[in-house]
Hints:
alpha/beta, 111 residues, Rossmann fold, four-stranded parallel sheet, 4 helices
Amino acid sequence: MPKRDDITSVLVIGSGPIVIGQACEFDYSGTQACRVLREEGVRVILVNSNPATIMTDPDFADATYIEPITPAVIETIIAKEKPDAILPTLGGQTALNAAMALHEQGILEKY
């Protein structure tokens, strides 16, 4: 798949706190995705409410926000950082729900 030159920054939405039986696999896959995106020259902006996750290590993102994963918080980050794309699929149901709410509220269209 060819690299898209129009995407220079990506907002990665993490999974939040690890719950038994859920989210640790998202932490691993999210960390690997952040690493690869940065290797490809993409600016990675990460939001995750779990400060204990490896994803929040400064080596994996150019900007890290340890904030609640809510549409309001994510909108504030989008307004400030102006990412070219959003990657919620690495954050499990929490991130997917937040991304769907952003879409339904018209926030993605706004920015």
